[in-house]
Amino acid sequence: MKVSRLPLAALLFLGLAGSLLAGEAEAPDETEITTPTSVVEDEIVVLATRLGRSIENTGASVTITTKEDFEARQTRQSAEALRPTPGAFLASGTPGTPTSLFIRGAASNQTVVLVDGVQVNDPTLGGQYNFYDLGILNFSSMEVLRGSASTLYGTDAAGGVVNFVTERGSGTPRARAQLEGGSFGYYRVLAGAIGAVGPLSFNVAGARLASENELENDGFRSDTFAGTVGYEPLDGLVFTLSARMIDSEKQDPWDFPFGPQIEEDDNIFRDRTTSLAILGVEHDVNEMISWSLAGWLFDVRSDLKNGPDQSGAPDELDSTNIAKIWNVTGSVKFSVPEVTDWLDVSTIVGVEIENERSESKVTTAWGPQPDLDMTLRNRAAFALLELVTFERFTLSGGVRRDKNSFYGYRTTGSASALYDLAVTGTRLRANYGEGFRGPRPVEFSDPFVGNPDLRPESSVSMDVGVEQEFVDGDVVLGATWFRLRTNDLIAWDPGTGILENFRKAETSGVELTMMLRPAKGWEVLASFTAQDPRNKSAGPG
């Protein structure tokens, strides 16, 4: 593997010796301890709904994993954190292998991935996200929303949303460091600092994870820097500056595409760098009105090279894909806790402006392919209304209107209902959501499978669930039926050899969950998901 461009390891080791004296590494526990996915403490806020409700007061199908869960499970990468999620399937391999998430049968590029509410799906991969690149560095929680949610987050949210929340600094400033190693050249180092001084808070850290893996030419390395600084000059007024950069390298021991292993050849080499910067302000004007404004920049560069199998032969593939996205989103939230003695009302309205530019240069053994240089512009407005009656029945609905410079207008809606009967510990949920996924420039112009005539995908999801507590909440059983229908699904057609729109696909299934608290401080979760995917059309249309 080539030497990293980031001098991160040197910086980490400089503070390692002294920092290790300040803390003790926790021994791994052989028993997996988990937090229940449906019933958690009231103070945990569900950011994926944009209204900031506790999970007990939302009808959405949401799973929350906390920092305490990360530590108990010795979680290092986001892929590991996602595995216990009901209805979610991860496709992965050795460390560094591309890792894709499939929620309730949705395609991997039909799930929006957020970091602090900012979408980080990779346009150079057609909107997919490689979860193995993303470590849990500085994250305080992870939220998974299952079901179509384009009303809240626009394109790519046809199947669900995953939101990673960064921990804000607080308390006395303190340093931290970790060092671990294992077989096949695996090691991980981390160093950082967190705390607050007056109105200023901070949380900064850097980490390196690397592994040579079992096969020759299969090494992986990932460097991550994450930092957030907050400033609160007045109560309820917070300015935040955040940044996260990931630089990863991966070798592939297999010949391209899907050929035999050739140990004396470097074969496929991948280098991917992502950079995210966020500047935001939030202001709670009073108990009824709050607003927020955020601007962010997201930059991706993906390089892939497959060298010659024989000396003197040309490279089989050499490609560089670059995407640059900037976005400005503003919203205002109104909350009227007591319209009457039995009715609470909350609403949020917002606007979003986004530009995405994609560039691509590809050279194959047959010579250079046509370059890509394309910009997509998207403008959107959204609104969400929530009604709570008698502190028992919650009804919410929303609508969003997108205008894209390539595929035009898209309108999506959503509705959710929750009935909470506290006397018996019973919760009934029902959800309806619409979603869409606009094709990315790389899907139009890929030299091998691209199709300039692709149409946006659209989806409709529904689910109905029940959750019942027993033994004063120490036992919780849940069951959810769900269905996801997708029209104009973009997939590879073996008949034409390119990407095509397939008219109809459907997945239905059942999720069963069980949470036990056998003793104080222990929580054990079990889940079972059965899915029935069906292709409703004979071919592309």
Overview in brief:
By secondary structure, the protein is mostly beta strands. Helix content is 6%, strand content 56%.
The parts where pLDDT drops under 50 for at least 5 residues are 1-43
Give the strand content. over 45%
Largest sheet: 18 strands, antiparallel
Radius of gyration: 24 Å
Round the mean pLDDT to the nearest integer and report it: 84
**What's the shape?**
globular
Number of helical runs?
6
Instruction: Label the structural class.
Output: mainly beta
CATH architecture classification of the largest domain: Beta Barrel
Distance between the termini: 44 Å
Work out the count of structural domains: 2
What CATH calls the topology of the largest domain is Maltoporin, Chain A
Per CATH, the class of the largest domain reads Mainly Beta
Q: What percent of the residues sit in helical stretches (DSSP H or I)?
A: under 10%
